[in-house]
């Protein structure tokens, strides 16, 4: 399958591409918000998409369930009315553990050693799963978060080594190796999982860029008569959002101010941007996005709807 897009179109904003798509699969962290507040222009952009009857799925590698992510967005000012569906890797993990009837979920067992951020246990709430404090008593290992920057990878290594000796299968409910917190990049759970594999452990990933979570999005959209050719993935991670969209043949739009912002910090002209993007994608098998925008901003001047209504009444 051809995975390289020969040319990336640089756009002023989402308005440049909105007419070409009906389905929008949008990443959360680094695109909508920085963990504390929405980025400038995000709420207005979402309002514009909804006013044009676009179907918006927020797709996140969050290890938390969908409802918790919805509440977090609402708390920082992104209301559920601004999108249609929240889908997270944590939600897919919960569903798989609840059913345990297919794929790598089948026969996992009931005793779980959980590595999460801040001791969060919501990913197994309501499940017939027993959390154990000693990894040697576990049937499987579940990694949904990491206490970065308070902890480094070295703080987790003994647990990971013990789990490998026990030959535990590890589930990664958040494949992100890096995350965004304010202006800081922090270690993601994907880094812990990579170390687990280095030690010889067996890992199964739930989330971007792996295809099952994108296939779930495709199914949701197809139920509304929106097909992959009418859909775009928007995200700030080449390794997760752009690669993931590419793997299921969906067009992609890259946000350059997010996770990889350092790569574009000195780019002042389109030629600089193109060079910076080329260097970046060369690290990821040359999987290029179809479009690039700096932020999730509408871009063009927003229409004055009140003014339009006044004119109409005249």
Q: Any idea what the CATH architecture of the largest domain is? A: 3-Layer(aba) Sandwich
**Number of strand segments:** 14
Count of helical regions: 9
Count of folded domains: 2
Q: What structural category arises from helix and sheet content?
A: alpha/beta
Mean residue pLDDT = 90
CATH class of the largest domain: Alpha Beta
CATH fold-level name of the largest domain: Rossmann fold
Q: Helix amount, in percent? A: 25-40%
Low-confidence stretches: 1-5, 305-314
Alpha carbon gyration radius:
20 Å
CATH superfamily assignment of the largest domain? HAD superfamily/HAD-like
The outline comes out as globular
| Helix and strand pattern | EEHEHEHEEEHEEEHEHEHEHEH
Distance between the termini: 57 Å
Strand order of the largest sheet: 1-14-13-12-2-3-4
Please report which band the strand proportion falls in: under 5%, 5-15%, 15-25%, 25-35%, 35-45% or over 45%: 15-25%
The main pleated sheet reads as: 7 strands, parallel
């Amino acid at each position: 399958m051809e995975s390289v897009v020969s040319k990336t179109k640089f756009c002023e904003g989402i308005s440049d591409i909105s007419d070409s798509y009906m389905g929008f699969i949008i990443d959360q962290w680094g695109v909508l918000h920085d963990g504390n507040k929405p980025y400038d222009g995000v709420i207005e952009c979402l309002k514009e998409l909804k006013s044009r009857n676009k179907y918006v799925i927020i797709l996140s590698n969050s290890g938390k369930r969908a409802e918790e992510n919805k509440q977090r967005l609402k708390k920082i000012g992104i209301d559920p009315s601004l999108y249609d569906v929240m889908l997270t890797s944590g939600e897919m993990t919960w569903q798989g553990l609840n059913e345990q009837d297919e794929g790598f979920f089948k026969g996992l067992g009931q005793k779980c050693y959980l590595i999460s951020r801040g001791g969060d246990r919501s990913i197994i709430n309501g499940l017939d799963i027993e959390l154990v404090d000693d990894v040697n008593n576990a049937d499987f290992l579940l990694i949904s978060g990491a206490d970065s920057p308070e902890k480094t990878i070295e703080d987790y290594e003994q647990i990971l080594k013990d789990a490998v000796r026990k030959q535990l299968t590890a589930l990664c409910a958040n494949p992100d190796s890096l995350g965004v917190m304010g202006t800081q990049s922090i270690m993601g759970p994907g880094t812990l999982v990579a170390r687990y594999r280095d030690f010889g452990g067996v890992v199964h990933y739930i989330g971007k860029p792996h295809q099952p979570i994108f296939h779930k999005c495709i199914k949701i959209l197809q139920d509304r008569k929106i097909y992959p050719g009418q859909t775009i993935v928007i995200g700030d991670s080449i390794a997760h959002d752009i690669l993931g969209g590419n793997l299921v043949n969906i067009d992609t739009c890259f946000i350059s101010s997010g996770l990889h912002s350092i790569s574009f910090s000195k780019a002042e002209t389109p030629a600089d941007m193109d060079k910076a993007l080329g260097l970046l994608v060369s690290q990821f098998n040359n999987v290029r996005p179809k479009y690039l925008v700096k932020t999730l901003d509408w871009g063009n001047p927003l229409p004055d709807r009140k003014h339009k209504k006044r004119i109409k009444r005249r």
